[in-house]
Amino acid sequence: MKLFTVLVLALPSLILAKGHNSTSTTSQCKEIARLTSLMDLASNATKLASATHDNSTKASAIQAKASAAATTLATLQTNTTLTALCDVVFASEATKASCQTMAKLEKEAAKAANATASDKVKTKAAAQANELAALQGNATLTTFCAGLKTQETCQEMSQLQKTIARAANGTASSKNSTKTQLKADKAQAKLAEMQANATLLAACSELGVEGKNCPSSPFSLCTTPC
Predict the structure, then answer these.
(1) Residue 200 has what pLDDT?
(2) Distance CA 145, CA 100 (A)
(3) Do residues 144 and 99 lie in contact, with contact meaning Cβ atoms separated by under 8 Å?
(4) The whole model's pTM is what?
(5) Torsion angle of alpha carbons 117, 120, 121, 125, nearest 10°?
(6) Mean per-residue pLDDT over the chain, rounded
(7) How far apart are CA 55 and CA 60, in angstroms?
(8) Are 125 and 111 spatial neighbours (Cβ–Cβ below 8 Å)?
(9) Range with lowest mean pLDDT among 16-20, 27-31, 157-161, 185-189
(10) Counting C-beta atoms within 10 Å of the first and last residue's C-beta, which end of the chain has fewer, N or C?
(11) For 32-41, 102-111, 169-178, which range has the lowest pLDDT when averaged over its residues?
């Protein structure tokens, strides 16, 4: 549970949030994270003083909440199947965050490589070079990020198809029909460009896309209303 513990300690916004009664795995994992963070805060005098701005009344209230939640947390943690799933859930979220960080650093590095880039931009990129290299050197991470980007692109294609379908079904009011059609025309052009990428279409197909057959898939790429 070491990875899980490190991750939940980075969730201070959950500490004082109201608990959820949902029994879904995600909700239970969030509850474990919230309660673990609460317990950690309540037992760490330095963190508690900082979080409450040395307000003893607030500190006592947090400690009381932690004491009352101890049994609930212990019960959740005895479910080894749940805690194992939570490790996966939070590790996935952490990996997504790393993908976002890498994408941001890559954009900043690209800006710095521009001949017109300011010294400030170049200095910032240089300071981040080692971090970017470490992220890019992680084969597992880059593979995950590539897959995530593909999934997001497939979802974008699905949204474009929906925009086209809305314009085609003729339900838009006359006032908005022109705007709707303009959006649909732009969507159609972008969708056609994306669909010209055979590799992308194949990848989307692996995610459950059947293209012209219009399946009940969140990644449907039909170019005409189903």
Answers:
(1) 85
(2) 9
(3) yes
(4) 0.56
(5) 130
(6) 79
(7) 9
(8) yes
(9) 16-20
(10) C
(11) 169-178
* Helix H or strand E encompassing 83: helix 80-113
Long-range contacts of 73-76 (CB under 8 A, 24+ apart): 73/32, 73/35, 73/36, 73/39, 76/28, 76/31, 76/32, 76/35
C-alpha span between 172 and 169 (Å, rounded): 8
Domain boundaries of the chain, sorted by first residue: 2-88, 91-140, 142-213
To the nearest 10°, the Cα dihedral for 215, 221, 223, 224?
A: 20
Q: What is the pLDDT of residue 168?
A: 79
DSSP E strand stretches across 80-134 = none
Asked if residues 50 and 30 have their Cβ atoms less than 8 Å apart, the reply is no
Q: Phi/psi at 119 (nearest 5 deg)?
A: -65, -35
Give the span between the Cα atoms of 175 and 185, in whole angstroms.
17
Average pLDDT of the residues in 124-145: 93
